[in-house]
Amino acid sequence: MRHIEKALVAAVLLLAGCGGGNGGSGTGSGPGGMSVPKVDKLATLGAGEGSVNVIAWAGYVEDGSTDKKVDWVTGFEKETGCQVNAKIAGTSDEMVTLMKTGEYDVVSASGDASLRLIYGGDVAPVNTSLISNYQDVFDGLKNKQWNSVNGQPYGVPHGRGANLLMYRTDLVKPAPTSWGAVFDPASPYKGKVTAYDSPIYIADAALYLMKTKPDLGIKNPYALDDTQFKAATDLLTEQNKLIGEYWSDYTKEVQAFKAGNSVLGTTWQVITNLAKADKAPVEAILPAEGATGWSDTWMISSKAKHPNCAYLWMNHIISPKANAGVAEWFGEAPANKLACQQTADKNHCGTFHADDEAYFGQIWYWTTPIARCLDGRTDVTCKDYAAWAQAWTTVKG
Amino acid sequence: MRAFLHRHPRVRLAGLLSAPLLWLIVAYLGALAVLLVSAFWTVNGFTGEVVREFTLANFRTILAEEVYRTVTLRSVGVAAAVTVICVVLAVPMALYMAKVAAPRSRHWLVIAILTPLWASYLVKAYAWRILLANGGPVDWLLGGAGNGPGYGLFATVLVLSYLWLPYMILPIYAGLERLPDSLLEASADLGARAGRTLRSVVLPILVPAVFAGSIFTFSLSLGDYITVQIVGGKTQLIGNLVYANIGAANNLPFAAALATIPVLIMVIYLVAVRRSGALEEL
Description:
The complex is a heterodimer.
Chain A: H1 2-18, E1 51-56, H2 74-80, E2 83-88, H3 92-100, E3 106-109, H4 111-119, E4 123-124, E5 148-149, E6 152-153, E7 156-162, E8 164-168, H5 180-183, E9 193-196, H6 202-212, H7 226-240, E10 243-247, H8 250-259, E11 264-267, H9 269-277, E12 282-285, E13 291-301, H10 307-317, H11 320-331, E14 333-334, H12 348-351, H13 357-360, E15 363-365, H14 385-396
Parallel strand pairs in A: 1-2, 1-3, 9-10, 9-11, 13-15
Antiparallel strand pairs in A: 3-13, 4-13, 5-6, 7-13, 7-14, 8-11, 8-12
Helix pairs in contact in A: 3-4, 6-7, 7-14, 8-9
Chain B: H1 2-7, H2 9-38, E1 42-43, E2 50-51, H3 57-64, H4 66-100, H5 103-114, H6 121-132, H7 137-141, H8 153-177, H9 181-189, H10 194-223, H11 226-231, H12 238-248, H13 252-274
Antiparallel strand pairs in B: 1-2
Helix pairs in contact in B: 4-8, 4-10, 8-10, 9-10, 10-13, 12-13
């Protein structure tokens, strides 16, 4: 523990010393010419510490308290003696903030959090040889730009999926097929549209513009220059008039759809499942334009107080059975190949395109926008995440 | 030991006061000082690390961007509306409690005013979310789904007024209790009617008490962000911006800069209220 801390301090000093001027080509330098803080990975696995503190998306850590049949935590606790303390976060930003406290051991980070955590020195590289289930993870998810740096994995892939469009089947007619439904200024559902309350939602508008206004030249909804960014935020400002409320708390969204305060808007499959379980007449679709989505990675804190339990957890959560359980409950494609045989619905992997890389080519995973355009343009600078965050406040007015 | 303390009253006093003073200076003023200092820092946009270099960038953004002006004005508007509603509701109630009700029932009335404070703030706010839901009880009273106010600015003002009403009633009640009945009788003896007595005798005594209560309702509303989140729909107040910058955007320095706005407004408000003598009523 002690020397991890030392390494971290050294790394931060290193970062402070050589940040900025560094180009982009040297070893260990990432987006925007930043270098990765050097953090040691765990060398050998020891005995569990008795507990593990987890930050997760809603539905990722279920111990049977939401639904008796949905439980992949109790068995793990019994088997390893690691008590799981879960903290549910509503947005990626919240996850980054929570991880910075150093109170948590592992996090299920999406692509718009993972790189910020890596370059912030908040997470440690992962020794995948200590995680036996890692070998069964789809190759399409390993060593990706959002979960590794220079071939060194910083976490284990968990699963991936798309942000969907949910609507009340009894109130929204005809059923929507396009994201245009939530952006139409003449929408009959004015005041009852909902949207995800995070700056990353700007990408949803950009994706819609990418398909409907090709002359803007948007190639990647996370790489927006000034004109493109303005078009996206203008669309959202216009959309604000239709919005009843924004959501980031999934329970609030379930209640709003059940009562009918919201009838149309962005959702996750798990929210649709919960709303249906609550007898709300809702349905969720993947609109024609494709969608933004996520590819999540379990990462371990560089300040983890329970590193062994954290490794045990990471191994457990991508084990075929647990991975299948999460994938079905949350409504996403599992990361583990073998999970496809463990799902209750045998078509789950087919429905969610688990090994269909062509399908996921249509999904734009959440990624942190940075000044150097992610789509490879070098003649313009793109709006970085700070600008996105500021603009989001302005959009909400 | 006891004899020593007896002979040295200053040591005794120091021993007695050092702990609370330490609390006041370190925890209370210290936190405010940290807030003020960090408002001049920035964060690295990508990693979220705090950059400890003096800059006025945060304040420049707040002044330059129109959205912060809009939100500030909206917050002050909500706080003022809540205060006015609380005054309008609290004055007759307090008047009845202090002057009309039998002394025996006064006791029970005060308890009745206090009971809502026993329930959690959050529970009450969520109860209002259910009440105001589409097709909920409020809609039903007004004749069907969609007839009620729904979630939004109006709901925010309504729920905040409900939440802070006791804080307005109690100071007014305390102020009126100190008003001797003989003054009212003297006014009546001199031929004044109820209205005139109210205007010339009760009101001048009431004003400082109302201001005292308004300090609570105004400052509590100005800083609130939870009620807005629950029943406010898409409404943003200063509190939401502060919360979003701490939680979502992880921009503590900017949140600190935003938090100085309500501090500033409250200082101005307190200075204004001080002139009315309301601070002696607290």
